[in-house]
Amino acid sequence: MQIPTLETINAFLDGIVNVPVFGVPLLVLWLAAAGLAFTVWMRFINVRAFGHALSVAFGKHDRGAGAAEGDVSHAQALWTALSGTLGLGNIAGVVIAIGIGGPGATFWMVLCGFFGMTLKFTECSLGQMYRIRAADGSVSGGPMHYLPKGLAEQGWPRLGRALGAAFAGVCIFSSFGAGNLFQITQATAVLREVFPGLEGQRWVLGAAFAVIVAAVTLGGLKSIARVAGRIVPAMCALYLVVVIVILATHASEVPAALASIWRGALSPGSAYGGFVGVLVAGMTRATFSNEAGTGSAAIAHAAATTDEPIRGGIVALLEPFIDTVVVCTMTATMILVLDPASSSDPAVAAAMEAREGATALLLLAGEVQPWSRLALVVAITSFALSTVLTWSYYGERCVRHFVAGSPLKNAVLRVYQALFVAVVFAGALVEASSAQQFADMAFLSLAFPNVLGLYLLAPIVRRRLDEYLARQRNPHGSNPPPGRP
């Protein structure tokens, strides 16, 4: 039996994800419609609850140990989920989006992030509502739980089981692609650029990454949350310092860069196909950036310690705002003022052609601020590792969904963990362009079962949201207590 190559897998997934509907890939239309519909249905909760979300994230509503069920705080859940999204999707992904769709792709990324806030709220609220206490004592939640349990309560048990199994299976597959292979290929490309001697020693980088990932993941979610809670805020601050300094040195060019984003979004050319190309590039990279609609972040937020499920969803809506509306916009503006097309370094053009977005950004920033090369290497490598760690947890939880009652559970989990670490090692040897396409197709496929379930379960979330907001307005009133719908 012949083992399928990445190119074969990519071609198969492309035939599913990119089925054209009115000239737009099916999945892009699916996510765009869902983001708009849920934002209207939840009465723009992404705007109304923004301030409350910030207060939750800063611990104002945290309960003491034992007061509510959960494994981590709201802030730890937020940073863990952000570690799976805030990183190379916002750096390499933005460079790739502009390389494919031009400056206008940024506008669609930001718009997608805005509407994605409501999708993230909905799925993470459901993750809290239908979470379970696993046999090992940990809290587990996500689409593999809320799809079968929630839809069974609505009278669709078979559909719920099918969608939950489909999500879990695709999520395991995606953990090897979007959450692992893409991250490692981009990180190793950056390291090889800075340290050319490693070009012929890729296995050294692969082995180093594999050892780190294996060591941290053995500690489970709490270990991953501790690492993410320390690494992600620090690396985000470091990255933003680089961006701000570069934008400050090109302050006179920033207005023109922002204007090009607007012009490119609305008039990328006379052909309809040009507009669709910009739209697709922006929305695809936005989904990869913030994961809204794919359901993955609900796995992390389900473990937050709270007795108010809606509160977990409200803090989750900050993720698309942070990683897409803020970080992606700043990254895109920086790329546009640096202008890859005008660079005299042929390595920049080569990196853009190979879709090594992180490497292209590293080279461009280094031309302006030499010190930024080292800062970006540290930030990019840390972002990549934190994303890999988070996705190892997502994949493991989905594996547990299939083998929860099996006597072979521990053996199957060990096989998954070994394969995951092996892919980390292999990521150092794979070219970025193939890994990026594989990651996109596998990851975006998560939105099919998840969003369908969200449509069917949205009335429950809307009712629970109204009850929660009423309690916040009148905390001593007689509103029904939180609980199962």
Automatic annotation (TrEMBL):
An example of a Pfam family matching this protein is: Na_Ala_symp
Q: How does it sit in the membrane?
A: Multi-pass membrane protein
Q: Name one GO molecular function term.
A: amino acid:sodium symporter activity
Report the sequence similarity comment from the record.
Belongs to the alanine or glycine:cation symporter (AGCS) (TC 2.A.25) family.
- Report one GO cellular component: plasma membrane
UniProt-listed InterPro entries:
Na/Ala_symport (IPR001463)
Keyword Nucleotide-binding found? no
What is this protein identified as?
Answer: Amino-acid carrier protein AlsT
Task: Tell me what gene encodes this.
Answer: alsT_1
- Annotated signal peptide: none
Q: Where in the cell is the protein located?
A: Cell membrane
The organism named in the record is Saltatorellus ferox
Keywords, comma-separated and alphabetical: Cell membrane, Membrane, Symport, Transmembrane, Transmembrane helix, Transport
Residue ranges annotated as transmembrane are: 20-41, 77-99, 105-122, 162-183, 203-221, 228-249, 261-281, 321-338, 371-394, 415-435, 441-461
